[in-house]
Amino acid sequence: MSASPPALDRSATVLVAGSSGLVGSAVIRRLEARGFTSVVGARSTDVDLTDARAALDYVASVRPAVVVDAAARVGGIAANDAEPVEFLNDNLRIQTNLFAAAHAADVDRLLFLGSSCIYPKHAPQPIPESALLTGPLEETNDAYAIAKIAGVTAVRSYRRQYGRRWICAMPTNVYGPGDTFHPARSHVLPALLQRFHEARVSGAEEVVVWGTGTPRREFIHVDDLAAACLHLLDHYDDPTPVNVGVGEDLSIAELAGLVAETVGFTGRIAWDTTRPDGTPRKLLDVSRLRGTGWRPAIGLPQGLRDTHRWYVENVAPAPS
Questions:
Q1: Alpha-carbon distance 287 to 223, whole Å?
Q2: What does the DSSP 8-state code read for residue 127?
Q3: For residues 278 and 264, which has the higher predicted lDDT (pLDDT)?
Q4: CA atoms within a 13 Å half-sphere pointing along the CA-CB vector of 280
Q5: CATH class of 13-176+222-247+283-297
Q6: At what angle do helices 300-314 and 252-263 cross, to 10 degrees?
Q7: What is the model's pTM?
Q8: Buried (b) or exposed (e) across 206-238, using 16+ Cβ within 10 A?
Q9: What are the φ and ψ backbone dihedral angles of 125, each rounded to 5 degrees?
Q10: How far apart are the first and last CA of the chain?
Q11: Is 175 a catalytic residue?
């Protein structure tokens, strides 16, 4: 692992692309809480990063010293499976255009946020960073994964060809306040939380969950991810992507039970085994990250309570 870089100048301008999303908004909160005085959030309404000229002009106008790329087209299994062309093309354009604009603006420090889905479907568990490109991907989100792999390759290429001190973080499943609660675009945790909450409110006796319940997943609270991002910018400078996770997982059946308990649902949980399970297990090897001195602070039970509270206050229909 390369030597630790100098800590970021807290007065330097930091551009966070994707600032209205779950991760981008949390990164901004973290930066401001840690004394950064010039943080600029770029939302899709501010700049269309799929437009190369728009991206170039916008980044040139901001003149950032640091860029955090949290901009992406994201969604759950259903959306990824139904719209692979959009997930591939939009994410490739966003990354390519933002990287080119950052390079043209002479940005020395950039953090690209990828995804744990870049790893093979049957990777060794826990998954080390060295597993990248060693086997076939999960079919339901391979287009999104290929785009993210291209982003990793681009960062490495800018480092090798131009000496840029750009880095990549590969987070596990992210959740928390500000998450997307949508029937077709939610990831598994917010989808379950919404479904169980609505069942409790309506008095339903049963909630049906996709798959068999046997796949195992790891979850990181978005505020922990944001803390890890700043930590890496302050302490990490290496072409190898860094896994960002908590180091432990649970089955979807266990998660469903925990969500039901959190929202107060006491009915039955049924499993629709005609629906896809996705990757059997996806637990990240976080030894590289821990070697830099970082640990998560928010456990899943606490994080679920925080997320449910935010959902009730900001998304759920008011009681009639």
A1: 20
A2: B
A3: 264
A4: 7
A5: alpha beta
A6: 50
A7: 0.94
A8: ebebbbebebbbbbbbbbbbbbbbbbbbbebbb
A9: -115, 135
A10: 57
A11: no
